[in-house]
Amino acid sequence: DDTIVLAELAKRMGIKANDMIIKLMGMGVMATVNQTIDYDTAELVATEFGFEVERAAFEEETILSTSVVDEDPSLRVTRSPVVTIMGHVDHGKTSLLDVIRKTSVTSGEAGGITQHIGAYHVETENGAIAFLDTPGHEAFTAMRSRGAKVTDIVILVVAADDGVMPQTVEALNHAKAAEVPIIVAVNKIDKPDADPDRVKRELSEHGVLAEDWGGDTMFVNVSAKSHVGIPELLEMVLLQAEVLELVANPDRLAIGHVVEAKLDIGRGPLATVLIQEGTVKAGQSVVCGMYHGKIRAMFNDKGEQVSEAGPSMPVEIIGLTGVPEAGDEMVAVKDEKDARQVSGHRLQKARARELAKNSRVTLDSLFERL
Ligand code: GTP
Ligand code: MG
């Protein structure tokens, strides 16, 4: 009845597929990476690796139903684009977003350096856009390395007076690897020593060619200081979004990803989650990374309490049993029992992995001493 692909089982146990194949061979079972093995074999081999097995491991998928591949396309409707603002330190990412939001985040930040990721929902005349501001590229990388495609478009901010810098190239490489379209915002165009052509030239050396230079990347000169080019930038984002034909089904159990999370002394674990599919509602049970919880309250990016959040909406949730990591998946489930079961199972797996790691360390140090 129950089967699992060998590679998937190995991944879930946090061990190399090859090690599992060898272990199976020792048990007289010949299997390849992509082969499915039955429950009994899986249980045996897992036990061999020191895991305690319960059937829930196989039920996680059915409980979570995170797969959207088979979903009826007619249920999927247009959603807003999710845009990540990236670029070298101090090139004006937060300032630009600030102008876009017409509020003042930069002035409220310690030393003007972004300490956390902000996730914002911005309504423009021609449509809504979700923005992610990044301090570095860690969260973006974390999400990407877990296979989460959270961002639809990257705005690469390059200061016109500074040109392409190391983190500009880094951001560019992340965007390229994630296969996300890039819009270049040449910022600080108000500065007397601003040289936008230099930015174009330097980026062309990294394979990014502006449209007026015969390429296909949109460039726009902007200034967060004098507010030049902001409507044009937003226009480009919405244009690009149209090309991408972004859709999601708002009428299903929600799936989202943690953008940032922290422990609040008064309110407990807080997680900012960007919703990708479905609609999350206050009072619902969710699994979030290794933790779970019943959503006690939700807040939008303006700090206002909301009762639900749909696709492309960032929302801060309260009620989790622990602080998840940036990049963790959040999935709404049917009830608290399901949530507890999945989370309990994941915690147990994490502990088993930790134990396995520690025992290996002990063994190694033992050999060292011999
Ligand atoms: P990190 O979050 O630290 O990576 O920086 P950031 O890219 O978010 O830059 P931030 O918005 O904090 O701006 C850095 C400095 O550049 C601040 O002093 C801003 O006032 C200034 N600045 C940003 N945009 C402009 C602009 O268009 N023109 C001028 N003249 N200064 C700008
Ligand atoms: Mg910033």
Task: Provide a brief overview of the structure.
This protein has 370 residues and is of the alpha+beta class. 34% of the residues lie in helices and 26% in strands. Bound molecules: guanosine-5'-triphosphate and magnesium ion (MG).
* Major sheet strand order: 5-6-4-7-8-9
State the shape. Answer: globular
The major pleated sheet works out as: 6 strands, mixed
Order of helices and strands: EHHEHHEEHEEHEHEHEHEEEEEEEEEEH
Distance between the termini: 47 Å
Enumerate the spans where pLDDT stays under 50 for 5 or more consecutive residues. Answer: 104-117
Helix and strand content put the structural class at alpha+beta
The tally of helices reads 10
Number of strands: 19
Measured by DSSP, the beta-strand proportion falls in: 25-35%
Radius of gyration: 23 Å
Ligands in the model, by name, code or SMILES, are: guanosine-5'-triphosphate, magnesium ion
Helix % is 25-40%
Instruction: Tell me, rounded to a whole number, the average pLDDT.
Output: 84
Keywords: Cytoplasm, GTP-binding, Initiation factor, Nucleotide-binding, Protein biosynthesis
Organism: Desulfoluna limicola
Binding site for GTP: 87-94, 133-137, 187-190
Subcellular location: Cytoplasm
